[in-house]
Amino acid sequence: MVAPGMVDTSTSPHVTYLVKKDSPLQTLDDLKGAKVGIGGIGACTSGYVEQYLLREGLTEKSLAQGSPEYDFTTFSDSGTMEQAVLQGDIDVTTSHTPYAEITLATGEVRALGTTYDIFQNGTGSLGARVLADRIIEEHPEVAQGFVNAMYRARIWANSHFEEAGDLVAAVLGLDKGDVLAIVQDEHKT
């Protein structure tokens, strides 16, 4: 890890857990027996909600241990779990931007919670930038240049928040409102 990335906040969460607007699920505490869509086994896609369930005593086993109380379904393509919740195939998504915002804009879903709700601080973020040891050792000037550029980009993005979101939307070919700009860590190292 050579540079930090995003910071989870209440207004720009890393992951949003979506349910259909008429879902009986009201809080993350209601997940027992729910079909939860994940993008794979990993920190943000399954790990944060698992940590919540374990911490709150809602399960005694993690997904890796085969918790029988929860049905985690893996979706390999971005955007497919949001479609699955709209169709009623799953109960909850673990959605990242822009898919959370696009799906919320339909009016057919609501947020059950976010990673910020789980942690109540910035630790729900994940976005450290990494370089291979070989690159750092063989090209230290390139590595340092990358770190410096990332620092300047994070400072600019935070001070031009709306414009940063608009640029990301333009690059991805999305509507401006479909991309949630994420607060960036301003530490240099």
Features:
D-Maltodextrin-Binding Protein, domain 2, single chain, about 35% helix, about 190 residues, globular, two-stranded antiparallel sheet
Number of strands: 4
- Helix-strand topology string: EEHEHHEHHHH
Morphology call: globular
| CATH homologous superfamily placement of one domain | Periplasmic binding protein-like II
N-to-C CA distance: 9 Å
Largest sheet: 2 strands, antiparallel
**Can you identify the CATH class of one domain?**
Alpha Beta
CATH topology of one domain: D-Maltodextrin-Binding Protein, domain 2
How many helices? The count is: 7
Main β-sheet, spatial strand arrangement: 1-4
Helix content: 25-40%
Q: Cα-atom Rg, whole angstroms?
A: 18 Å
Strand content: 5-15%
SS class: alpha+beta
Q: Uncertain regions: pLDDT < 50 for 5+ in a row?
A: none
> Mean pLDDT across all residues, rounded?
88
If classified by CATH, what would the architecture of one domain be? 3-Layer(aba) Sandwich
Please characterize this protein's 3D structure.
This protein is α+β, with helices and mostly antiparallel strands. It has a domain at 16-121: 3-Layer(aba) Sandwich (D-Maltodextrin-Binding Protein, domain 2), CATH 3.40.190. The chain is built from seven helices and four strands, in the order E-E-H-E-H-H-E-H-H-H-H. Strands 1-4 form a two-stranded antiparallel ribbon. Strand 2 (35-38), helix 1 (43-55) and strand 3 (71-74) form a beta-alpha-beta unit. The radius of gyration is 18 Å and the shape is globular. The mean pLDDT is 88.
